[in-house]
Design brief:
Elements (H helix, E strand, L loop, with lengths): L1 H38 L2 H12 L2 H15 L3 H10 L4 H19 L6 E8 L3 E9 L2 H4 L2 H16 L7 E4 L8 E3 L8 E3 H12 L4 E9 L4 E8 L6 E2 L1 E9 L7 H17 L11 H16 L5 H19 L14 H12 L3 E10 L14
Antiparallel strand pairs: 1-2, 1-8, 2-6, 3-6, 4-5, 7-9, 9-10
Helix pairs in contact: 3-4, 3-5, 4-5, 5-8, 7-8, 9-12, 10-11
InterPro entries: EF-Ts_dimer_sf, Transl_elong_EFTs/EF1B, Transl_elong_EFTs/EF1B_dimer, Transl_elong_Ts_CS, UBA-like_sf
Pfam family, one: EF_TS
Protein name: Elongation factor Ts, mitochondrial
Length: 372
């Protein structure tokens, strides 16, 4: 019993001291917490409180609103809102910053899809090619708006007097463009606008090239766009200038026939306007190929030469616009169509220039790329 009574005293003492230390520790923590909160900005406390109390329905609504504003992917929108305590204005700024960085990272990826955009008036037409990585993005409203705006901007520039004026991205990229669209923030350079769209859609976007076609005489500029999601946009385009000698001749017929020939250009893919404009080197190369093919038949030399000339006429019908069979009526050719038009309006009509463009032509596509 004596042992038991003596052992209780240190145990009680230990319990008492531990209770005192716990109480002191609690009051110390409380006082530190009070000091921290008393010096913290009120806005920060409110934001922390708000972020933890935003109901799920409100979060979904904010995500929807920000996606409408920016066209950014769902996961990026949600991440920005969460990191900005569900402040939609701050999240929108955060998305733009993230997007510019991501756009720079994606700039080396192949962009061979996209759209052609045309803007024109009575005497000139401008066409531009805006590329992206997938046809899904080419259907995006923001992407299409940028393509159309670039074409209109190109049409408004003063060209150096050339009837056919091709240009690269450097011709426009430092000019200011005001994109009248709710998802753009006012005026920016063309280069910045392209980067901003790349950030919105999450793909590499490139302004690749453009061309301005003009007519100097009495005539019209005609165009046709194939695979057209909306007016002025498409994946393949044909443009030409039709000119008439008599300055008093009506041009309504020229517009009608010009549109039809522009469609023909897209379908028939001519390389040259006339036989006289086929480069000598291209003609000689084709002649050599045809001669080699004919010699394999084992026929006499005289017969081989006749075969070569016959096949060369076929080459002209395939590659030269004026010699091609008219796609609207294959019983005639383009040269005859122009002759008939000249008779109808009482003055000679000629094609001064033509252009055919297609999205992604000449771009090497990486098959099976993972897109990272």
């Amino acid at each position: 019993m004596a042992w038991g009574q003596g052992a209780r005293r240190p145990i009680v003492g230990l319990l008492f001291r531990s209770q005192q230390q716990a109480a002191q520790g609690y009051s110390s923590v409380t006082s530190q917490t009070h000091m921290l909160t008393s010096h913290a900005p009120k806005g920060a406390m409110l934001r922390r409180g708000f972020s933890s109390e935003v109901p799920a329905s409100e979060q979904i609504n904010l995500i929807k609103q920000l996606r409408i504003r920016t066209s950014a992917p769902f996961k990026d929108v949600k991440a920005s809102l969460a990191s900005c305590n569900w402040d939609i204005e701050a999240a929108q700024k955060d998305l733009r910053k993230r997007g510019v960085v991501l756009a720079a990272k994606k700039s080396s990826r192949t962009a061979a899809e996209g759209l052609l955009a045309i803007a024109q008036d009575e005497k000139r037409a401008a066409i531009v090619e805006l590329n992206c990585e997938t046809d899904f993005v080419a259907r995006n409203d923001v992407f299409q708006h940028l393509a159309s705006s670039l074409a209109k901007m190109a049409l408004s520039t003063q060209t150096p007097g050339e009837m056919v004026f091709p240009f690269g991205p450097e011709y426009l990229e430092n000019m200011s463009i005001n994109l009248d669209h709710p998802k753009f923030n006012g005026e920016a350079t063309v280069q910045s606008a392209v980067t901003e769209v790349a950030a919105m859609v999450g793909e590499n976007v490139k302004f690749r090239r453009g061309l301005i076609l003009s007519t100097s005489g009495h005539g019209v500029v005609s165009s046709y766009l194939h695979t057209c999601p909306q007016p002025g946009l498409g994946r393949m385009a044909g443009l030409l200038t039709l000119e008439v000698e008599d300055s008093n001749a009506p041009i309504d017929a020229l517009k009608r026939v010009g549109s039809s020939i522009a469609m023909h250009i897209v379908a028939a893919k001519p390389l040259f306007l006339s036989k006289e404009l086929v480069p000598a080197a291209a003609l000689e190369n084709e002649r050599d190929v045809l001669r080699t093919q004919a010699e394999s038949s084992g026929k006499p030399q005289m017969a081989i030469e006749k075969m070569v000339e016959g096949r060369l006429r076929k080459y002209f019908e395939e590659a030269v616009l004026l010699e091609q069979k008219y796609v609207v009526n294959d019983s005639t050719n383009i040269k005859t169509v122009l002759n008939d038009l000249s008779k109808n309006i009482g003055s000679k009509v000629t094609i001064a220039n033509f252009v055919r463009m297609e999205v992604g032509e000449g771009i090497q596509r990486l098959e099976g790329a993972d897109g990272s």
